[in-house]
Amino acid sequence: MLAQANDQVRTATVPLIFIYFFFYDFAYTAMLVLYTLEILPYNIRAKGFAIMNITIYSTNAFNSLVNPVALDTIGWKYYLFYCGWLILELLFVMVYIVETRGDCYLFASSSSCGLLLF
Fold it and tell me: Where is the chain membrane-spanning (predicted)?
């Protein structure tokens, strides 16, 4: 009975992962580009977009190369570190990311007030 339940769970997990990542990628991939281009003034938009892409590629490389080594080295404790890092990222977003809801995109770029180092 338990083995049959495990097989059903295993069978359902793979399609659910694909469904989850379809909607995640559908929303998040476009949001990265749109938000970055929306908040940056026109004269630094290309530089900001380039920095965004460099940041994304470097974090993807870090996650691909460092996470498996750290997980093998310290085991389940890495999940505690990772959750702490996610909390720090959340705090950063809450403090520093410009809210653009209800604003015209032209006003969003003026509210950043040159926070980027350009």
Answer: 12-37, 49-66, 78-98
Residue 107's Cβ-side half-sphere holds a number of Cα atoms within 13 Å equal to: 6
Domain assignments of the chain as residue spans, ordered by start: 2-111
Residue 35: how many CB atoms within 10 A of its CB?
A: 15
Q: Please calculate the CA angle 27-104-99 and round it to the nearest 5 degrees.
A: 60
Give dist(CA 13, CA 4) in Å, integer.
Answer: 14
Provide the token pair at 43. Answer: 């004269």
CB crowding 4-30: b at 16 or more within 10 Å, else e: eeeeeeeeeeeeeeeeeeeeeeeeeee
pLDDT block averages, 10 residues each, the chain of length 118: 74 91 86 85 91 94 92 92 93 81 58 47
Residues near 39 by Cβ (< 8 Å), separated by ≥ 6?
98, 100, 108, 109, 111, 112
- Pick the closest to residue 56 from 48, 46, 44 (CA basis): 48
